[in-house]
Every structure is written in structure tokens, then in C-alpha cells.
Specification:
This protein is of the alpha/beta class. 46% of the residues lie in helices and 21% in strands. It is built from eleven helices and twelve strands. It has a five-stranded mixed β-sheet with strand order 4-3-5-12-6, sandwiched between helices. A five-stranded mixed β-sheet has the order 9-8-10-7-11, sandwiched between helices. Helix 5 packs across helix 11. The chain is rod-shaped, with a radius of gyration of 32 Å. The termini are far apart. The chain binds 2-phosphoglycolic acid. The site of 2-phosphoglycolic acid (PGA) has 14 residues, from helix 8. This is LysR family transcriptional regulator. Pfam families: HTH_1 (PF00126), LysR_substrate (PF03466). Belongs to the LysR transcriptional regulatory family. InterPro entries: LysR_HTH_N, LysR_subst-bd, WH-like_DNA-bd_sf, WH_DNA-bd_sf. Keywords: DNA-binding, Transcription, Transcription regulation.
Length: 307
């Protein structure tokens, strides 16, 4: 006995409407096509499933028995479709996120919150510097990129997340620590420990000094914010880093922010996708989560400036 799922659907619709024409409308078929499918089904089953009573068609005993199973099968089918849709949608998936080195101070916390709520989604997080992020956008490598400044020469969808102030840091016992409105000229002769060329932080620092008519020469270059902080604490020079990278050091008073004119350098974090790159529902969910969380983080970080 061969019964197709399509025949079950047709049988069920005819059973519920008790009318071939109405069933044909609901299934977007012609009435003769419906009649033929029912006839074939009855031949396959070897039993009559409907009988005419005047203008109505009603189920036979065999029809009623089949109807019970047909309803169960349809419900199961619907459940299967919904489950698969769900799996295809937000709750499962693999997302490639690339983020600027400096964003680890918040993106890891956001990722932890997201993963807790979305256990079926695996996020591969690649932490790298701005130069590599731009290359990845160029090559459609990452689903989502969290970075300082989106490159102007690529077609992108970019959304601002929150402020990213670059602050001037010194050891807590530095003579300028605690002073107000320090002129830039007072720090120009100081040694600086700064991020490597290719980083967004470095580009912003160079632009800032150029805009304010100062020449900037770094004494020491380092590839990570952590090395810069340790170097500054050790007395190797002043540093310019994102406020987001020094939360612990401010809380433990091992670093201080110098109140130099025109500082902090105002920057912003963005979440960026390449135009034309399809964003899976899982990636879309992550993006929305990060955008929503950024609003809370922003207030939290502003409080750090007051420490
Ligand atoms: P970076 O990027 O870690 O490469 O400096 C962050 C930024 O652009 O501010």
C-alpha cells in the first residue's frame, strides 16, 4: 500500500471541508485533480473513503479511521517543519566574528552573555588589529567585525556601538597625576609607549597629534594594550590607550588618567558587515545582542572617567 504525504494532505482537506471544490481552492488545485487524487488513494487503500449523501460527501468508516491517523501525521509533520526551521534559525549556527584587539575588554563579556542564552550557536572569535580586520572585510572572511573606525573605501553596513575614548595614562605616582587642565606642551617631551602601526589606536593617536600641530614620536611600540599598561606602570613612559582597557588598573589605582587638554581622544566602536554578505539568523541575533548590550556598557565606561 503506497500513500504519499500529498495524498494525506488532500484527503484531510476534503474530509474537513466535505466539499471537493472548497478543498481544491484551499490547496490551489483544480477540482478534477482533487477528485483524481482521492480516487487513486482509494484504489491504493482498497477501500472507499468517502460517500455521497446528496450534495455532501461524508467519510466512510475507513475514511474516519484514516482521518484520525492523517491528523496525527500532519501534526507530526508540522512539528518537524517547525523544529527544522528553528534549528535553521537563531538557535543553531556558527558565526565568524572578528574584533579589534582593544575590544576584548568588552566583546568577551558580551560573548559570554550571548553564549549563555544561545547554547546552540558557536561563535568563533578572532581578535586581531585593524589592518587585518580591513583585509577580512575585503575578502568577505568574517560575518561580523567589531572595530574602531570602518574603512571608507569599502561598501559596508556599519553601526555605531558606543564611545571609545583614548586616554593618556601615567603611573599613579607620576608628577602630573591629579593635576587639572595640563597643557599638551607639558607632555610633548615625555617618552611614550604606544600600539604598533596598523592598529586603529595608533592611527588615531597620530591623527590627533597632527591635527593639533604636534609631532609625535614614540619611544616604544607594543602589539598589545596589556604590554603598554605594564610598561607604563613600570615607568617606561606615558601611554595612550582605550579607556576600556584600563578598568582594573583604575580600580586598583595602579594607573592614573592624565587630564591633558583635548584628551580623551573621542572615538567610537562600530559593528560592521560587508555589503553583499548574507547574515545568517544566528549572526543577526548576535549583532542585535551586541548593539543592545553596548548601550549598557557605554554608561558603565563613562563612570570610569570619574574614578
Ligand atoms: P586596535 O583597534 O585594537 O587595532 O587599536 C581598535 C581601534 O580601532 O580603536
Amino acid at each position: 500500500m503506497h500513500i504519499s504525504f500529498r495524498q494525506i494532505q488532500i484527503f484531510q482537506t476534503v474530509a474537513q471541508t466535505e466539499n471537493f471544490t472548497r478543498a481544491a481552492e484551499l490547496l490551489h488545485m483544480t477540482q478534477p485533480a482533487i477528485s483524481m487524487q482521492v480516487k487513486q488513494l482509494e484504489e491504493n487503500v482498497g477501500l472507499s473513503l468517502f460517500e455521497r449523501q446528496g450534495k455532501r460527501i461524508v467519510m466512510t468508516a475507513a475514511g474516519r479511521a484514516m482521518h484520525t491517523y492523517a491528523c496525527e501525521i500532519s501534526a507530526k509533520y508540522q512539528g518537524m517543519v517547525e523544529t527544522l526551521e528553528e534549528l535553521k534559525n537563531v538557535h543553531q549556527g556558527y558565526i565568524k566574528v572578528s574584533a579589534a584587539n582593544t575590544s576584548i575588554y568588552f566583546i568577551t563579556r558580551m560573548l559570554a552573555g550571548f553564549s549563555e542564552k544561545n547554547e546552540g550557536i558557536t561563535v568563533s572569535l578572532n581578535i586581531t588589529n585593524r589592518k587585518t580586520l580591513v583585509e577580512q572585510l575585503q575578502n568577505y572572511d568574517a560575518d561580523l567585525v567589531v572595530m574602531g573606525e570602518p574603512p571608507a573605501n569599502l561598501d559596508l553596513h556599519s553601526q555605531r556601538l558606543m564611545c571609545n575614548p583614548l586616554v593618556l595614562i601615567a603611573p599613579a605616582n607620576h608628577p602630573l597625576a591629579g593635576q587639572k587642565d595640563i597643557p599638551v606642551s607639558a607632555i610633548i617631551g615625555e617618552k611614550f609607549v604606544v600600539r604598533e602601526p596598523g592598529s586603529g589606536t595608533r592611527a588615531a593617536i597620530e591623527r590627533f597629534f597632527a591635527e593639533h600641530g604636534h609631532t609625535f614620536s614614540s619611544t616604544l611600540e607594543m602589539g598589545s594594550n596589556e604590554s603598554i599598561k605594564y610598561s607604563v606602570i613600570a615607568g617606561l613612559g606615558l601611554g595612550i590607550v582605550s579607556l576600556h582597557s584600563i578598568r582594573l588598573e583604575l580600580e586598583t589605582h595602579s594607573l592614573s588618567i592624565l587630564d591633558v587638554e583635548n584628551f580623551p581622544i573621542q572615538r567610537y566602536w562600530h559593528i560592521v558587515t560587508r555589503e553583499g554578505k548574507w547574515l545568517s539568523p544566528a549572526a543577526q541575533a548576535f549583532k542585535e545582542y551586541v548593539i543592545a548590550e553596548a548601550a549598557n556598557y557605554s554608561q558603565d565606561y563613562q563612570r570610569l572617567l570619574l574614578v
